[in-house]
Amino acid sequence: PGGKVYGPASEDVERLDAAAVFGALEAAGATDPKVRPWEALRATKDGIREAVKGAKRGTFGRVLEAVRAAGGVDVEAREVWRVRQEKGDV
User: Fold this and answer.
1) To which H or E segment does residue 57 belong?
2) Residue 37 per-residue DSSP state
3) So what's the pLDDT on residue 2?
4) Which distant-in-sequence residues (6+ apart) come within 8 Å of 76 by Cβ?
């Protein structure tokens, strides 16, 4: 009795193109000097957050939208294991 039953599930993962991320950060840096494109050492959402830390409010969202508009986001599905039900709930 008790315990958890796990099963496979699918979730979307966004992969960002490094050139699109850097280009969007450079464009944002042209209007906000607190944006630091060279700080995005990784083309990830965390890398973008690091590069825009301290910049104007909403800069992260604008940069991410610019990356999407440039076709720099590839969405893939990956399999993960999730809790389906608690044993005993059957």
Assistant:
1) none
2) G
3) 60
4) 12, 13, 15
Confidence of residue 77 (pLDDT cuts 50, 70, 90): very high
Q: Tell me which residue has tokens 């050139």.
A: 19
pLDDT for the residue numbered 62: 94
- Torsion sign (Cα): 86, 87, 88, 90: positive
User: What are the start-end ranges of the H helices in the chain?
Assistant: 18-31, 45-51, 59-69
Identity of the amino acid at 49:
R
Residue 86, pLDDT score: 64
Is the alpha carbon torsion for 40, 69, 17, 79 positive or negative? positive
Strands 4-16 and 73-86: antiparallel
Contact predicate 20/84, CB 8 Å? no
**Contact status, residue 65 vs residue 16, Cβ threshold 8 Å:** no
Average predicted confidence (pLDDT) for the chain: 87
Give the bridge partners for 38, in sequence order: none
